[in-house]
Amino acid sequence: MNSIAFTKQLVGVQNDLLRFAYKLTTNSDEANDLVQDTSLKALDNEDKYTPDTNFKGWMYTIMRNIFINNYRKIVREQTFVDSTENQYYLSAPEESVFESTETAYDLKEMRRIVNALPEEQRKPFAMHVAGFKYREIADKMGLPLGTVKSRIFATRQKLQEELKDFR
Fold it and tell me: How many other CB atoms sit within 10 Å of the CB of residue 163?
């Protein structure tokens, strides 16, 4: 097939390509861009087209592959991998609240309240804050799981009640 016949077939499928591109993108500007990218790719790879085969199918395949590659590229660019060790800081603002004097006072107040609790409530709560799971705390302390959960819950309630004026 010569270049003139190839170009005529390419021009002949432009409207079909535009409809297909709009189905893929649902945006007329993006559809036009996709048709243009597809046409350029087809012209660059004209020598790879086998004459007497389905030209429209070949063009649709090129368009679909370009669309998929562009989509993957966009997804890859929008993916953010957080490499911090402590996920708690993921949403923290740049000026970290953790360094303010108000927070230091709140932490001191929290410690005071927790330390004033009886050992049977303070120890499970401290272990929970340190990252132990309920089951681990129950096993280490030799207590039923429900008891551990209720003691931690009661400590949280106590903290909320005592610190309600600090919010």
Answer: 13
